[in-house]
Design goal:
Chain lengths: 297, 281, 287
């Protein structure tokens, strides 16, 4: 009935599919391995205290990564502080309140935002937002941490909104009915029943948004002004700042392969990899517990 | 204030938040379209850049982006769809499957610049592909992989289990059921996912910075081992690296890039809604 | 190859002591009385568990050829599970254990050398709900034969006509064979599914409540085609009502909570049940 050649083909295809599935693990390991291979030697070339310094002047052999680390953290947290309320409110609006026609407009637009290349948003930030920030502040430059955070907030919004929406969607309808049945208004039900029930999903949303923000490169590089200074004072919002990603992007093109500077940039890459790995691990835990399913398959 | 008033004000605030989210999107697109349209003409799209990019067109960047996207597609479509088939149709709930899922989640979260570093380390230097279309495409493909795997897997899982059972009951092997029933039914969803993944690859700059992108190369690439200009990098270069750049060329380039990406987005949306209406289950 | 090779761990310890099952075997034979000579399907001491929970307890039963055997009983009694064991569809379910043997023409269908797809071609299955595959009427009927490697047009055309005629559907669809299958009515769809199974010229046809979703007229049509089919096929039917069971049964087996309570030829099970529980069920006291 079934010829042996067909059987063999099928066996080959299934083996290939299996290899492809498993290769994803290999890729992650490969990425980490190559980052280590290129970056790790720097720790034998430069004393650790040098990295923990506050000055990043690679041409003078100063690799203080603290301003970059803090710069990334500063911009990311500011961005999330803007995006979290906006994103959750929008998700609640889209999922719980908005009439159908509004949903039909909002959802595709948010998807469009997710698709706009980072470099285009960076360009818009430079040419449109930065001059206005400068005018309003009367600052010497509009390329500030705040400008960067604003752009980043919008870049992480699609992630936050869609994941938060899924979380709200997963709250059983009976919860809402129960809330309304005891005489609560829809508004009260949303904030006292639905949103708390979706809490873990919203945390996932924020984590993923944060991962997106911390790893963002081009837009940040184009709008933050790229001065490697410690963002420790309150006015740091409106001063230039420099992130880890922007540092790699801006400097890797000009360094000699295999130089200390080159390896230092890879070391920053390792740090980024590890940080995003843990952010995603935390986010993934929520995804995995939700995903469990059995039965036929 | 009555509870109804509170609710009304609350809902208004939510609507305001939604407007705050979407209005800037329209502003970005509107701004770039209005100011970029002036630069767009046949020559701009089909001519080489001249005079240190301050004149002429963006043809090599456009072609470069096209080639990179194609190269990405060739690598990541079979890998991504294959991986998705494995996860949806073959993988049981074991530690290995969980490790794969974890790997995919993490791949999706790795910053694009780190992909760039990886591409530089593995493809450009270790495998000695040099800064080339090959190295850039491979880097972009690996970055795109998790997107394609997760969207394809979702599309495959949406196909009712019963179809598989029926295929088995008629003497089909697992692969025959996949090839004849599951894949064709999931295809629109898979294609949508592929387009969304490729769109991201086409617009990315960071992964190609050190793996392929040429600052200024007013000719077309001749082989996969050539460097090439690319639209996103070109936009970055002309808006930050070249002083005295005419504004209309910057906006024109931004508009072309935006148009490429948004039209892919539109195609994906249309495919999805068309087949959602047509499907038989 | 998930399912196809790894699942259905056989003869693993289910917690039933061997001696007990031996005793049960004789008991069963005595209770059901008739063992058939040269049965088409012989089910021998089959026990089956999902996630460690027994769904079938030591079933021994013969299914004679060219007759309609009915598995009846209240829901959860194990009828569908047993049905799905006969063409190994339960291979697809994870975390299951099976012991005992199922013989088709004297051959153990769970033996390692058995080619499962070929087995499923010999033992067709029709499900409770009409499940047309996406595609046309023609594509549905010819799905199995094409997978089996039949390519000649004339041969396929022949199969198409024969199967649809056997399922009493031909007259209704002969002018629209290339219409989408899901445009047919529920009753037509179910007969299409029967035709789809018949296209493989199976030896056994398993039907799991094939008329549960159908109106009385469609049900009558399906039953009518079953009468025609039993001349050349061995049919095992899980009926959707006791009335239907009584109408079509040549042999009847009553299942309760994973046990085979009794098994009798003809209508005896309905007219002269030996077991009190069978009597209560067929007379409508429970179920």
């Amino acid at each position: 009935m079934h010829d042996t050649r067909g059987r063999w083909m099928e066996f080959a295809i299934e083996a290939l599919i299996r290899v492809l599935g498993i290769s994803t693990i290999g890729i992650v390991l490969l990425i980490f391995a190559f980052l280590l291979r290129e970056g790790l030697p720097v720790f034998f070339q430069v004393p650790l205290t040098n990295f923990l310094d506050v000055r990043w002047y690679p041409t003078f052999g100063m690799f203080g990564a603290l301003p970059l680390l803090l710069g990334s953290a500063f911009v990311t947290f500011t961005a999330i502080a803007i995006a979290l309320p906006l994103g959750v409110a929008t998700a609640v609006f889209v999922r719980e309140v908005a009439p159908n026609w509004a949903r039909e407009i909002l959802k595709p637009l948010i998807e469009v935002l997710a698709g706009i290349p980072s470099v285009v948003l960076g360009f818009f930030g430079m040419t449109f937002i930065a001059p206005r920030v400068r005018e309003i502040l009367g600052a010497p430059t509009g390329l500030t941490a705040f400008t960067g955070a604003l752009v980043l907030a919008y870049m992480s919004l699609p992630t936050i909104i869609s994941v938060a929406e899924d979380a709200l969607d997963a709250v059983p309808k009976s919860y809402r009915d129960a809330g309304l049945a005891i005489g609560a208004t829809q508004w009260q039900t949303i904030w006292r029943v639905v949103v708390p029930a979706a809490r873990s999903g919203i945390v996932t949303a924020v984590m993923l948004g944060m991962g997106r923000a911390i790893g963002e490169t081009m837009a940040v590089m184009m709008v933050t002004g790229n001065a490697a200074r410690m963002p420790l004072t309150l006015d740091s919002f409106f001063r230039p700042v420099r992130t880890m990603t922007a540092t790699i992007a801006a400097e890797m093109g000009e360094v000699a392969k295999g130089s200390v500077h080159y390896r230092a940039l890879f070391a920053i890459g390792i740090l980024l990899f590890v940080v995003t790995f843990f952010i995603n691990l935390t986010a993934a835990r929520a995804i995995f517990t939700k995903r469990r399913r059995g039965g036929l398959r | 204030m009555s509870r109804q008033q509170v609710q009304r004000i609350g809902f208004a605030l939510l609507a305001l938040a939604a407007i705050t989210v979407v209005l800037p999107i329209l502003l970005v697109i509107g701004n770039i379209v209005v100011r970029g349209l002036a630069a767009i003409n046949w020559e701009f799209l089909t001519a080489m850049p001249k005079n240190g990019m301050k004149a002429g067109g963006i043809f090599p960047a456009l072609v470069g982006t096209l080639l990179l996207t194609l190269g990405t597609a060739v690598v990541c479509i079979p890998m991504g769809v294959g991986g998705a088939i494995y996860l949806s149709e073959y993988a049981r709930d074991t530690w290995l499957t969980r490790a794969i899922r974890l790997a995919i989640v993490n791949l999706a979260g790795i910053p694009s610049i780190v992909y760039g570093l990886f591409g530089l380390g593995l493809f450009v230097l270790f495998l000695q592909f040099g800064t080339s279309i090959l190295a850039g495409s491979l880097t972009l493909a690996i970055m795109t992989l998790p997107v394609i795997i997760s969207t394809s897997e979702e599309a495959l899982r949406a196909v009712p289990m019963e179809f598989r059972t029926v295929s088995f009951s008629l003497g089909g092997t697992r692969w025959q059921g996949i090839r004849n029933i599951v894949l064709p039914q999931a295809l629109p969803g898979i294609i949508t996912g592929i387009i969304l993944g490729l769109l991201r690859a086409a617009g990315e700059t960071a992964p190609i910075l050190f793996t392929v992108a040429a600052f200024y190369l007013p000719r077309l690439p001749r082989s996969p081992f050539d460097q090439t200009m690319a639209l996103p990098y070109h936009l970055y270069v002309i808006s930050t690296q070249v002083p005295g750049m005419p504004e209309h060329i910057q906006y024109g380039t931004a508009l072309v890039l935006l148009a490429v990406v948004l039209s892919m987005n539109l195609v994906a949306t249309l495919i999805r809604s068309y087949f959602r209406r047509r499907r038989q289950w | 190859m998930r399912g196809d090779t790894k699942s259905g761990k056989r003869n693993t310890e289910l917690g039933i002591r061997n001696t007990e099952s031996e005793e049960r075997k004789t008991e069963n034979v005595m209770m059901s009385g008739e063992m058939v000579l040269n049965p088409k399907i012989r089910i021998e001491n089959v026990s089956y568990a999902y996630n460690g929970v027994l769904a079938l307890k030591d079933i021994t039963l013969d299914v004679p050829a060219c007759a309609i055997t009915v598995f009846l009983g209240p829901a959860g009694g194990g009828k569908t599970t047993l049905l799905r064991l006969i063409n190994r569809l339960n291979d697809l379910v994870e975390n299951t254990q099976m012991r005992g043997r199922i013989l088709l023409d004297g051959q153990d269908i769970y033996a390692p050398e058995v080619d499962v797809p070929s087995l499923r071609r010999r033992v067709g299955m029709v499900f409770a709900l009409p499940l047309p595959l996406p595609g046309t009427i023609r594509e549905n009927v010819l799905y199995g034969p094409k997978l089996a490697g039949i390519k000649e047009r004339t041969r396929l055309e022949e199969i198409l006509v024969r199967s649809l005629q056997q399922a009493a559907l031909w007259d209704e669809v002969k002018d629209r064979l290339d219409d989408p299958a899901n445009r047919l009515s529920g009753g037509q769809q179910q007969r299409l599914c029967i035709a789809r199974s018949l296209a493989l010229e199976p030896e056994v046809l398993l039907l799991d409540e094939p008329t549960s979703g159908l109106d009385p007229i469609s049900t009558a049509k399906v039953e009518e085609s079953l009468y025609q089919l039993k001349r050349s096929y061995t049919i095992v039917l899980v009926p959707h009502s006791v009335q239907q069971a009584a109408r079509v049964a040549d042999y009847a087996a009553f299942f309760l909570m994973g046990e085979l309570v009794e098994h009798q030829p003809g209508k005896a099970l309905f007219t002269a049940p030996r077991d009190k529980r069978t009597e209560d069920y067929v007379t409508g006291r429970f179920g």
